[in-house]
Design a protein that fits this description.
The protein is an alpha/beta fold and 80 residues long. 34% of the residues lie in helices and 21% in strands. It is built from three helices and five strands; from the N terminus they run βββαβαβα.
Length: 80
């Protein structure tokens, strides 16, 4: 049975017991998930450039507006 992966992943930089950037690098290094769009989240707006340089597909600063979340979701889901 083939594994199923999400169409999009929102990943916070700060996670309990782990660093979202480490998880991001692991996912992007795997053949099965390297094309998975990953949007990094952070409460620190100054991390935008850092996550872009790390290769994240996009960045969303917390707190965010619902419309911004929906726009990013639409940008990456169903983009054929």
């Amino acid at each position: 049975m083939a594994e199923s992966f999400p169409d999009l992943l929102f990943l916070d930089i700060r996670l309990s017991g782990s660093d979202g950037r480490t998880i991001f690098r692991q996912l992007k290094s795997q053949e099965a998930t390297h094309r998975l769009p990953i949007i990094m989240l952070s409460a620190h707006k100054d991390t935008r450039q850092m996550v872009r340089e790390a290769g994240a597909d996009d960045f969303l600063a917390k707190p965010f507006e619902r419309e911004d979340l929906l726009a990013l979701t639409a940008k990456y889901v169903g983009r054929g």
